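Input chain follows. Return C-alpha cells only.
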Amino acid sequence: MLIEWKEINAQDYETLNSWLSVQDKHNLCMTIKGWEQTALDIADCLKYMHNAQFKNIMGFVNGKPVVALMFGIEQIEVLNLYNIVVNPACRNHGVAKAVILQLLKNNKSLEIVKPYKKMVVSTLPDNVSMHNLLKNLGFANMGFNGEYVVFEKSAFKTDERTPV
C-alpha cells in the first residue's frame, strides 16, 4: 500500500473531523478539544525540547485521504505516536498496521529527520483494538501509568527489519 503524506491543512481538518465518532474522540482524548487544537498543543510543547520534531500529517492512497496521524520525536530519541485515525471507509484493511510499520522502519516518505531508537504508544485502557494491534506488531506492554497503557518497541534501521 503506497501512502502519500502531506501536512494537514484547514480543509483536511474538516475531512478528519467527519471521520471521528464519539468513540473515536474518546479513544483519541479529543472529547473536549479537536484534532487541530491537540496538534497545536503538542507542537507547542515539543518546540521547547532540544532535537525534537513534530508531524501532523494525512496519508492519501490514490488521491483519497485514508489516515491521519500526529507523532513527535523527543530528545531522548523516542518517537511518540500521539494519535492515529483511519478513514471509517478504510478501516479493517491494514492501514493502521502499515502506517505503524512505516514509523518503525523510519520510512523516508514520512520525512522524519530526527533520529529515534524506539517507538512509544500510549492508549486508554479501554481501547482494546489498539492494544491488540500493538501486541500483534510485537510491542511490549509496559503497563498502566495511571492514565494510559504504554506500549513500546525498538525501531528498525531504515527500510530494514533489523532493530536499531
